[in-house]
Amino acid sequence: MKSLQIEVQLPEKEIFFKKLRASAPLEIFLNAPEELVFCADIYAFQPQIHPEKHLGWWAFRLENGKHHLTLQFDFSTIDEHSLRLFKAGEEVKHQNFWVNPSYPLEPLQDCKLVFWNKNEIVYLKRNLMKIEDERILKSFYDQQYKTEGYAPTSDRPFLDLLHHFKLRILKKYFERYFKGLVLDVGCGLSLFTEIQKKWTFKIIAGDLVFGRIKARKQARPDIHWIVFDASHLPFKSGSIDSIFAGEILEHLPDAEQAIKEWNRVHKTEGILVVTTPNRDRRINKINKDNWAYSPDHLREISYNELNETLLPDGGYRPLKKKGIYLEIFTRSNKWWHEDYLQREGNVKSNACLMKILFRLGYWFPKNSLVLMTVARKV
Fold first, then answer.
1. Exposure of 190 by Cβ count < 10 A (0-12 exposed, 13-18 middle, 19+ buried)?
2. Angle at 175 between CA 169 and CA 180, to 5 degrees
């Protein structure tokens, strides 16, 4: 198509929902020699499988020119009115739509804004939708627990290699810095149990999922397992010697409150070890977006935000700041870039290259995939 011009802009890169409703301003400039169809298409963050992981799509006709629009979402029920488009206060009626009334809402949804020319996509822009609702989070984690289990596969080794690389670093940190009473917040299965059987300190591990805690208590009675919210701890002030927060900050709606709560129960000079995915990892910088790494990551944070804002404001002084893995080899799928070694290059023959790039993250932590910080309560 000659002389085709399309610009789609949402002022905010992410659409936040409160009580299953949201509104987002949308600016579109369209100059096309043929009539195009504008479509808003909503899937779960991942995997995107039709129809079970497909919320629905809505198609509209827009004339050439500049449009100042508003998208309104209402997911209290999934029907044809779950997405509506307005221009100057007047609703733009959709020409066609499809919805899945049984779609289970998740913490993250992927809303693609697409222009179609017959059966060809001529423009695509993805937008992250975040639902900060306790019921949605609880339902998601309950369902996740039913199928949870770490099962590495030899034909796609990246996550397994990354996992064990982190464990080796954490083992050194735990042995060097931890003592007395150690708290594992948002523990999941607890990485302490994966690294080794016995430690020189006492461990309290906590999570929100009752079934998981009950099962882990039976499997590892040597650890004290408790059900609690990582942002509201059932411990006296100054009662904990050391804290491990592994891959938990990104799941919390209010990371600032959580860190202050950890500080409350922490003894003075106590050590905090934090791991979390990096919002400013290299692939996000290339794509100029804040795309989450996992479907339950409500708020990923950057290297500077963690070490220069969140931890100091929460009463901690970073001692060691490290990054793991640098996304060097990227491939474009036409609409955005992806890391080759986590997609088609995720094969056993590339394992040595992956290990090299894990270490390369040490030198470029601000753009690494994973952040690791050791901090002391001040």
1. buried
2. 135
Closest CA to 371 of 298, 305, 275: 275
Alpha carbons 303 and 307: distance in angstroms, whole number: 6
Is pTM beyond 0.70 here? Answer: yes
Identify the DSSP state of 326.
-
Is the backbone peptide bond immediately before 157 cis, with ω within 30 degrees of 0?
Answer: no
Q: What is the pLDDT of residues 46-81, one digit of tens each?
A: 888 999 999 999 999 999 999 999 999 999 999 999
Start-to-end Cα distance in the chain: 62
> Distances from the Cα of 261 to the Cαs of 29, 226, 233, in angstroms?
47, 17, 7
Q: How far is CA 26 from the centre of its chain?
A: 24
H or E stretch covering 162: helix 158-177
In the chain, where the domains are located: 5-138, 155-377
Q: What are phi and psi of 3, to 5 degrees?
A: 55, 35
Task: Determine whether domain 5-138 maps to CATH 2.60.40.2550.
Answer: yes
What's 155-377's CATH class?
alpha beta
Number of Cβ within 10 Å of residue 347's Cβ equals 13
Share of the chain above pLDDT 70, in %: 97
